TrEMBL record:
Keywords attached to this entry: Cell membrane, Membrane, Transmembrane, Transmembrane helix
InterPro entries: ABC_transp_permease (IPR001851)
Taxonomy of the source species: Bacteria, Bacillati, Bacillota, Clostridia, Eubacteriales
Intracellular or extracellular location(s): Cell membrane
Name of this protein: ABC transporter permease
Protein origin, superkingdom: Bacteria
Spans through the membrane: 26-52, 97-118, 124-144, 156-174, 203-224, 258-276, 288-316, 337-357
Membrane topology: Multi-pass membrane protein
Length: 367
């Protein structure tokens, strides 16, 4: 005896798009940016300012002069580095939300040698030791959740997120305890500034971290696209069962990839303390690890596309700082403008990948 059932389709449902033409995809992105500018312009107008003048000031304040251009590049360096760091983990569908903590772990390790070995090692050797220490510390911090995931199947999102707070607490302990004899302008303990021997040299007015990060970006592109290990990462990301059936050691791949991911984030920590700030603070990561997730996602994990996305976000951030000063726009409103642009950019990628299907009136399906 057969059973005849009838049910109504949902009013609105999502369906994954087939690959759309490149021109159409870029047209959607251009429309999203235009809508973001219009929406932001309305907010600026409500605040009593001319949107065109404010937008022009944002561009001028981030790119107009060599001095501000260097500051914009400094903001882009850690963003790009952190995005490249999480790319292999995300490619493997291991959701590494812990780049923030891995950056701090690398910064702590590098700072140890900067503070206590600056007089004992020649400058080139000291900088190399600091970099290696940062990479190893970040790699180990990334390896911890990978071991638990591979062995006991723990939730990597929560695990990596919680590790951020642990290492941040340790930085605060170092500031208030063994490494923090100095006081800042508000009377709070801080870690002393590094000796000049522990600071990165400059190239074109910016510390050489930008050269290092660009080199790592190129290497990561080749690693993910052309290497055997990159292929294994892609297979594990697509299907763990397929990887196991093909004879791959999935647990080893997870551990190896997360050590690499954390290691690059640790390198970013070294660049931050040795190049950007000259010391270690609880703001060394400063939300970079979280913003980098947006960079990586918008770039669809393509390291070269991350360069453009990181540059755009750095321009927005520096421009937002500028208009706060020039137009006395509240920091929250300036940050809102950046958030609006990101919202529309992320939203357009959704509509590029998916389409909404609205059920026609009275439409039914039968089983």
């Amino acid at each position: 005896m057969s059973v005849h059932t009838e049910h109504r389709e949902p009013l609105i449902r999502l369906a994954k798009r087939d690959d759309i033409p490149r021109a159409q995809a870029w047209a959607i992105r251009a429309a999203a940016i235009l809508l973001a500018l219009v929406t932001g312009g309305l907010i600026i107008a409500v605040l009593g300012h001319n949107p065109i003048q404010v937008y022009a000031s944002m561009v001028e304040g981030s790119l107009g002069k060599s001095r501000v251009l260097r500051e914009t590049v400094k903001k882009a360096i850690p963003l790009l580095g952190a995005a490249v760091a999480i790319a292999p983990a995300f490619k493997m569908k291991f959701w590494n939300i812990g780049a923030e903590g891995q950056i701090l772990a690398g910064g702590i390790a590098a700072s140890y040698f900067a503070l206590f070995w600056a007089d004992s090692l020649p400058r080139p050797v000291l900088l190399v030791v600091m970099a290696v220490a940062g990479i190893l510390a970040g790699g180990v911090w990334g390896l911890i959740p990978a071991v638990f995931k591979a062995r006991w199947g723990t939730n990597e999102t929560l695990f990596t997120l919680m590790l951020n707070y642990i290492v941040l607490g340790f930085v605060r302990y170092l500031q208030a305890g063994p490494w923090g004899p100095d006081l800042n302008a508000n009377g709070y303990p801080k870690i002393p500034m590094f000796d000049s021997a522990a600071l990165l040299p400059k190239a074109l007015g910016v510390h050489i971290g930008w050269i290092i990060v660009l080199a790592v970006t190129a290497l990561m592109f080749g690693y993910l696209k052309y290497s055997k290990q990159g292929y294994e990462i892609a297979v594990v990301g697509e299907s763990v069962r397929t990887a196991q059936y093909a004879g791959m050691n999935v647990s080893h791949i997870i551990r190896r990839t997360m050590f690499l991911s954390g290691g690059i984030a640790g390198l970013v920590g070294f660049l931050q303390v040795s190049g950007a700030s000259g010391t270690l603070t609880e703001n060394t990561a400063g939300g970079i690890g979280f913003t980098a997730i947006t960079v990586a996602w918008l770039a669809k994990l393509n390291p070269f596309v991350m360069i453009a996305i990181a540059a755009l976000l750095a321009i927005l951030e520096k421009g937002a700082d500028t208009i706060q000063t020039l137009y006395t726009i509240p920091a929250s409103a300036a940050d809102m403008l950046t958030g609006i642009v990101l919202f529309f950019m992320l939203g357009c990628e959704f509509f590029i990948s998916y389409r909404l299907i609205v059920r026609g009136k009275g439409e039914r399906t039968h089983e």
